[in-house]
Amino acid sequence: MKLYLTGHDYKYACEQIMLTLFPGQRPLYPEEPAEEGEDQAHITLFRGAQWATGRTALTWEGKSAVGSCRVKTAGLTGQVELDRALQKALKLSFYRAAVAVLGKEPPWGALTGVRPVKIPTKALLRGETPAQAEAVLRDTYHVTPVRRRLAMDCARASLAALDSLKEDEISLYVGIPFCPTRCAYCSFVSADVGKALKLLPPYLEALFREVEAAGDLLKRQGLYVRTVYIGGGTPTTLSAEQLAALMGHIRAHIDLSRCTEYTVEAGRPDTITAEKLSALKGNGADRVSVNPQSMSDKVLRAMGRSHTAADILRAYDLVQNSGIPCVNMDLIAGLPEDSREGFRASLDQVLAMDPANITVHTLALKKGSRLMTEGGSLPTAEDVAAMLDYAWTTLRGAGYMPYYLYRQKYMSGSFENVGWTKPGFENLYNICMMEELHTVLALGGGGVTKLVDRTAGRIERISDPKYPYEYINAIDHIIADKEKLADFYAAARR
Ligand code: SF4
User: Fold this and answer.
1) Would 158 be classed as within a structural domain?
2) What is the pTM of this model?
3) Which residue ranges does the record assign to the Radical SAM core domain (predicted)?
4) For strand 357-362 and strand 287-289, is the pairing parallel, antiparallel, or unpaired?
């Protein structure tokens, strides 16, 4: 969509709201004016002494509408507050024009962020009642009733998690960016997975060095690991011996005496064996993720997964027999070749297996994925909405509760990813990570360390290189860079 900004330079805010309301579009900033009737948005900011007004004139598929929003700027002292107010005026003006041309309200209304739950959580922490917290979502952001309920349930889970955390606790993420084959929607692991697998031994060598350095760093800082999450990629691409060696190395160098939760993503069923599960269990894992994404062989083939639905049932049985008490299963709504009926059948089959956690994702079209470059037969946004409605009702009916959620860019229909759980099986790592409740120290390729100082409202990120060869080559620099954690905590303690 062609965007024309006048009177301001809030490009990012305008792009965010455009991508939320028109997920299939990409922002364009042409020099020349658009043709009459062509898709375009003119987003203008007018500033007065007391007030500012955002105005959007939007044309979409031949329909045109104008939206505006006025905000009071008098009395706003800091630049951050002022920027926030002006961006709100622009976003809401765009939202109002978009709703008029689309003829419907999007599920999350005018909310553009990745973490919608933070809004009610903050309101509850300020001492507002649940009704007041929900009113912010309704009145300011026009969030629909179903999504408000999801956000409120997750906010309650977030507060309960926060209550259980101590100030000197962090979470540990360990990344294994390897997979047996590459899924069509993936932009994470290298396209040439076969060649990348040869890097596994030197990758583990580098990772072991980072584990040792991290153990030393945490000890010096007096920090304790509360949750461990080994993710990827697909960690169970490693052999049983490699998994045991990695987890043994973590235990030998990092104090896990306060760890109450240890997850390993076993993602692809074709990588799961009884030996590997025994290595996980023997080394402290108490939660694994077995991720079907779909229980339809046709959809699995279209995704480029090299396993069948029968392999998922087999893998689930192996996990059940391993004695690992908590299993998560991921499904994705909106996959190529899937349908409303197909998704329903997948969810019903997953429910019949009775896992403690079920995570329902919505397909996000990521740059660099095969799906993005080659295309595929995708369900419509209405189909995805029907899939999610079914998931929502069925999971609640089966006794599951939503406990964390997040949104992504380019997400089909502008929906969300939701973690559902049976009572008592909430995964603390996922809540801490998504709601930024405490520091997550990430080791390994593709990991993003998030340093969180909740008192000062400060968050800093340290990103590790995504591809294994980059990670191996940069390991000395990566280890040195993590010392930023010491500076961050020193500043927090001052
Ligand atoms: S399992 Fe995950 S990381 Fe691996 S190829 Fe598929 S989407 Fe990418």
Assistant:
1) no
2) 0.91
3) 162-401
4) unpaired
